[in-house]
Amino acid sequence: MSFINKLEKLDLFHPLILVAIVILFIIIAIPSWTVMGELIPPYTQLYVYIALGLVFFILGILFVRVLSTKINIFSKLSSLEIKNSLPDKLSLFDKYSQTELIIVAIVLIGIILQIINLVHLGGIPLFSSSLKAKAATKVWLISYILFLPSINILLAKFNRKSHYLLLIMGLGLFALTGYRTTPIAILLSSFITLYYTRDFKLKYQIIFLIIIAILLVVIGFIAVNAIGYQQWRLNALELVSYRAGFTLKILDRAINRQLITGGALFYATLTGFINSVDPRVLAGQAVLSIDHSTTTTIFGPALLDFGFIGMAIQMFLMGVFLKLLHITQKYKSGIVTAIYGVILAQTLIWIETGPTDLVVWIFYLIGFIILIKTLSSCRDD
Fold this sequence. Notes:
The protein has helices spanning 3-9, 17-33, 44-68, 72-79, 98-121, 129-135, 138-157, 162-175, 181-197, 202-225, 236-255, 264-270, 279-288, 300-331, 335-353, 358-380. The protein is an all-alpha fold. Helix 5 (98-121) packs parallel to helix 8, helix 7 (138-157) crosses helix 15 and helix 12 packs antiparallel against helix 13 (279-288). The longest helix has 32 residues, at 300-331.
């Protein structure tokens, strides 16, 4: 078997990809501590805590694997015949099903709400730091909650070229907000969904990954340079390394300030829809003693709130949940695959930003409900 064939057979979006991306994130940060000399290298404790966090994540995955051999419901699930009901092509004369029309309508509502949000702001936040600070409104939150899962479900269940136009429209509109995470989540989640529901050739996978990387660099560079009071001498690629290095330095400081927020970050995250307190600003206050929105990696918020035990539990449960969804979506493709794509994409983004987004916890809740429903229906069959 050739190397290319081995790559094509590799399960690229197994939950263990999180481990690989964490390692890649550290590698990207290294030039900011060495070659560029912009930041002081972190202490050894940083690598110890990251390694321990990843160990507990892997233990969560292994726990599900062991459990799947012991409990009948998983054995029954794994014995189901894999069915992909998606035809290669749909005739132009085929009628849209009622379900498809409903999902398209939800996607369009999400797009319209985002347009309303941009019009209300009176400009393009991507080019204005002041507008960007106001862009994450309740309208934005609702539009994102509607758009992201719906576009992935649409791509997973219905193979129509017209749906890609909706994807591109949503991607462009959310990119204009100036936030890197939302367009990356849209593109990455749709990539994961298509990866599991289409015959996705390796060359298209590479093209998709290149587009995601370019989008990450370009949006981040434009948004940062739109901040009038900041002057950067770094180019776009150096800025990516600097941001990774700075975020890991924040985690290094957070390790020395465990338990300092005592659950305030998690509370602020879960009450984000009704509470104006930004958990990332709280993190900045706790770690840097300034009112500045600060990302602390996937490990930082749990350490600041609940210490090492909290981080260990968080990573273990993430491993359990992602692996459960990963197994289930292989045999119940469609909605489960779409939700897995959304949650995995957002979790990978958390590697830098940390679990301080209410919208992502809402997606986790949706995934949990769908998982329970799916496994329950399998048990009742």
